[in-house]
Amino acid sequence: MPAPVETELYDVLGVPPSASEGDIKKAYRQKAREQHPDKNPNDPEASAKFQELGAAYEILSDPQSRGIYDERGLGGLSGAGGPSGGMDAADVFAQFFGGGAGFGGGPGGFGFDFDFGPGGPRRKRDDVIPYEVTLEDLYNGKSVKLNMEKNATCGTCQGSGGKKGAKPKPCAKCEGKGWTYTQTQISHARIATARAKCSDCNGEKEKIREKDRCKRCKGEKTVKEKTRQEIFIEKGMSDRQRIVLAGAADEEPGQPAGDVVFVLKQKPHLVFERSGADLLTTVTITLSEALLGFSRIMLTHLDGRGIKVTSPPMKVIKPNHTIVLRGEGMPTYKRPDHKGDLYVGLEIEMPDESWARSVDKAALRPLLPPKREDVSPLPAIVDEVDYEEADIEEVRERSFPAGANFFDGVFGQFGDGADDEEEEDWEDEEEDDHNFGFHPAGEPECRPQ
Ligand SMILES: [Zn+2]
Ligand SMILES: [Zn+2]
């Protein structure tokens, strides 16, 4: 199979383009469960994401529409050439990604061009551009200057494309209809006949004779116009938030110019994970710090500040201990002085064998808590077995090739012998963990500039 021209739909489901039908179905079910709007009441985009997911599945679960998508992308599924089932789904995508295409000179412009054919709805065309930002950008705010190029209505002919007084003539190729028939092979056995916009007159039914064309735009009606735009990444903006430059997209004569919409895409951060207004990170402390306490600069924040923390006197820090640094989370959008919290998981680094060899164990023993006794009551039969190190991850993969959730449930049994009550707590934690970082609670919104 040649590489697909687009992978957006696969990305939505989180599967590679080589995924089997079963993989796609499985991924969809899992994602649908996680992303159901009822489960994400704090995510204002939950229902949009859920719909997007459904649309992606609708296209990829049908071998025929999937084949067309792989070969020609979403564009191949739109219009009359696609299978009847594909149209709605492709249309849903049109809403999410805007109908625009061909953003000139922009950074990685993309968009799906939906041709509704003659008589179809003509909508304002927005250019939707994903824009990658770092967590530092979203914490500190940033202004970005961009050189952009757009099609602007030609001022010389006022968008008529012709010299003064020139009258257009009906297009010869489409005989003034604006469209022609095209045939599309959708499988080796089926050929679809579709109406497509006439390529000669661009669907406008008429053309201006060569000699009557406007000198400046050469009959194109629009000219390339370079503009310098500035967008502001404001403190506290969220992943997927949209920044709208109203009317900055290509102009077409007789139509309002669309907007250029930047959709922020937050790059994963090496140190911090974001969950709405809160941040999460892990810091490693030594055994000595866990037992005797610490007072030190633990981390460098997103604005470069050192963050110093002192543990309370007599505090013994246990494994999986988490602390919260109030007001050290992300700034709130539009209220940057109001910040969320920073959660710090403390990981205790145990000393290694070279340390163990270097210390006087006899001197250390009385300083440490006493060793454990045998299990009680004492079993009647006792076997002596060998001590051998193992990799629990590997055991789980080998023994339970089921879903990841299943392994998580098993972990309790392999782990510290948690009783039922503890296991239930653990389940809840997993739920929280899961939401951490994936569903920002901030409010993405459209904002004209
Ligand atoms: Zn012109
Ligand atoms: Zn024509």
From TrEMBL:
Start and end residues of each CR-type zinc finger?
Answer: 141-226
**InterPro entries referenced in this protein's UniProt entry, alphabetically:** DnaJ, DnaJ_C, DnaJ_domain, DnaJ_domain_CS, DNJA1/2-like, HSP40/DnaJ_pept-bd, HSP_DnaJ_Cys-rich_dom, HSP_DnaJ_Cys-rich_dom_sf
Q: Which residue windows does the record flag with biased composition (Basic and acidic residues)?
A: 22-42
Q: Does the keyword Transmembrane apply?
A: no
**Which Pfam families did the record assign?**
DnaJ, DnaJ_C, DnaJ_CXXCXGXG
- Do you know which PROSITE patterns this protein is assigned to? DNAJ_1 (PS00636), DNAJ_2 (PS50076), ZF_CR (PS51188)
Give the CR-type domain ranges.
141-226
Q: Alphabetically list the UniProt keywords.
A: Metal-binding, Repeat, Zinc, Zinc-finger
List each copy of the J domain by range: 8-73
Q: Where is this region: Disordered?
A: 1-49, 411-449
GO BP, one annotated term = protein folding
Query: Acidic residues: which segments have biased composition?
Result: 417-433
Gene Ontology MF: a single term: zinc ion binding
Q: Which HAMAP family match?
A: DnaJ (MF_01152)
Name listed for the protein in its UniProt record: DnaJ-domain-containing protein
Q: Which organism is it from?
A: Pterulicium gracile
